[in-house]
Amino acid sequence: MEREALTIRFPPDLLAKARKLKESSESFNDLVVEALEREVRRRRGWAAHQRILARSETIKTKTGIQPASTELIRSFRENEGRRG
Fold it and tell me: So where are the chain's domains?
């Protein structure tokens, strides 16, 4: 993976904690890159979740609350294999 140099200023206490936690074979740079990748994935996931909730509200506003499909699915499963 290509990398670009960047200067980041960390609070001293956070930097000390991170240095204690990193493994001896792991570079500090790798620790920061991995943490940033996880945070980017988390924020993308959160944004997707928010879009799903907004879309659900839009649909509920247009169509009202739909009845639960549990009983319909259960009846389909019970009748599976009983067709002729």
Answer: 12-79
